[in-house]
Amino acid sequence: MNVHSTQKRLPMFSPATGKQIGEIEETPLSEVTTFYEKGRSAFQMWSALSISNRLHYLRTLKEYMALHMEEIAKTISDNTGKVLTEALVADIMPTLDGIEHICKHAEKGLKRKTVKTPLLLMGKKSFIEYMPRGVVLVISPWNYPLQLAMVPVVSALAAGNTVILKPSEITPLVGKCMEELFAAAGLPDGVVQVAHGGKEVGAAFTEGTPDYIFFTGSVRTGKIIQEVAAKKLIPTTLELGGKDPMIVFEDANLKRAAKGAVWAAFTNSGQVCMSAERLYVQKTVYHEFLQLVKKEMETLKQGIDENADVGSMTFPAQIQIVREQLVEALHRGAKLEAGLPPDQWKEGMFLPITVLSNVQHNMKVIQEETFGPVLPIIPFEKEDEVISLANDTVYGLNASVWTKDVKKARHVASKLVSGAVVINDAIVTVANHGLPFGGAKNSGIGRYHGAAGLRNFCHEKSIIEDNGRKNTEIQWYPYYGKYPLFLKLFKSYFKPRKDMIYFAKMYLQLLKKSTEKERK
User: Fold this and answer.
1) From the DSSP assignment, how many helices (H) and strands (E) are in the chain?
2) Is 239 a catalytic residue?
3) Does the active-site annotation cover 103?
4) Which end of the chain lies in a sparser environment, N or C, as judged by fewer CB atoms within 10 Å?
5) Per-residue pLDDT tens for 146-201?
């Protein structure tokens, strides 16, 4: 990337302390074309490498990251305000595990697949090949700025693509860190390029005709990207927001469920697309469970030191969204079970950990993504009722069901319109890279992780192979005399009990007729 003295510089602040921790040069819009040209040039070399050779670079990346874990964790913590433990456990570890999974399974997942050949094509061979798409644009978010960028980037690279990564301008220090990680892994020039900047930079690269777009972020921005991509028929994966329900039945392990609820709602200060943002508790245990949740909350420590539990918010604009939802809920009769009303909040990026009761299902705090440390708790009576309530939003990313009755849990899980469901735990599906990850409804389009996630970054190419020894095929011209034979053949083949001797006889007659006509 060419650096000019006129480049805009992005300041980098620690949201937890408010102190400036550096600055970064924004990528000039004039260089968008250069990025794509460089990426396409590098694609010719990178896609020609064997999968094994590509994975060598990714293993080097993983090993380098493992050696520099503490530095990376501090960078993430400084730039996001999340506590060090969460930076390590929820951002770095899943990234390393994702790279490990890809390195173990990419060759098998992307190798040529043999497919059964149908009746009329008897004697031929059928295959599926996976061909890399080209230059993939990855636009990543600020809440898990390492994991939600690196995993799709590495998936695209393993599949043979080159990548332009546009990390969030909210966490530019992590973006710069990733750029340095790829350089340290020794990837060839142009294979991964990092473009730094805000919405204008992201929009310019989206308009720059990538071969595939992988976006993680808000529903609003995702729809804009999808509209731009649709005009050029650019395929996309969109991992968008969530409003995930947590359902606690009366027979659940209530102590475990209460601990799980507090963690699932407040980890990363609630800034998780898979946070438990709606907690439904069966009415018979509602009051008991509410007290257990409040007791668990009393043990939480907010701060930035190594032993803190809940860090700060990351994006200042998100605080206003949380404020507006709380103000509306309290105005309409919701009750604060824990936390403070917004007019008593202190200045800064740490928000009070909040629990609400007496909420109505049409409130914003139930229908819209909060992305902050707020947990509304709602009683329910019957199974069908809670399934209906859980499905009653425009989102469908994740959900959790808590009960000792496995049969009931599986039944409820199957009825939830959601990309994933966890039973007696929460959020953790994203940590299993063997499972597809993505959402339903407004929570997104497409999946990644697992073999299908690798193949998303490829064209599926169908191949049928004939040895070329025969001079004709039975379904080729001429058709003279073939109709009654075809009719008998198909009836024999598709009837409930196939008479294989009769079927073989009909097939040979058709083959003989085709050969006879050819000789004449």
Assistant:
1) 18, 20
2) yes
3) no
4) C
5) 999 999 999 999 999 999 999 999 999 999 999 999 999 999 999 999 999 999 99
